[in-house]
Amino acid sequence: MSKSPPYDIRERTFEFGVRIIKLVDAIPRTVAGIELGRQLVRSGTSIGANVEEADASSTKKEFAYKDGIARKEARETRYWLRLIQAAGLLDRPEIPDLIDEADQLVRILSTIIKNAEREIREEAGLYEMTND
Which of 41, 32, 45 lies closest to 88, judged by CA? Predict the structure, then answer.
């Protein structure tokens, strides 16, 4: 029985990064395995780092920008995982779960960004109305 992912995006991306690190340690040390492992560990751990930076943002615009970077890293991570799976570099049952989690992170981050951008537009509209 697998436990459900945490609701908090910061904790969820942290746990995802830990899972990526553990997976990369299992990749064979071939030329392809080493290079793909490096790419995967960089992008997979960068998601959470950018979410942390977004939470420390001083403006909504900066927040949306940093979460946008996290979303790009999640998409890249999904790509590397699919490539590792398709190339047969590693046959582990957690790979499809990690691909699914990366996809869910992309969707969650897209919603967070969309909401932040809506708030930015609303604040800008409110500001324009008060300066008429």
Answer: 32
For the segment 45-69, what is each residue's pLDDT rounded down to a tens digit?
Answer: 999 999 999 999 999 999 999 999 9
Note the residue count of the chain.
132
State the CB neighbour count (10 A cutoff) for residue 64: 20
Q: At what angle do helices 9-26 and 94-130 cross, to 10 degrees?
A: 150
Helix and strand element counts for the chain (H, E): 4, 0
In sequence order, which residues have a C-beta less than 8 Å from that of residue 19 and are 6 or more positions away? 94, 98, 101
Q: What is the pTM of this model?
A: 0.88
**Which residues are CB-contacts of 29 (< 8 A; sequence separation ≥ 6)?**
none
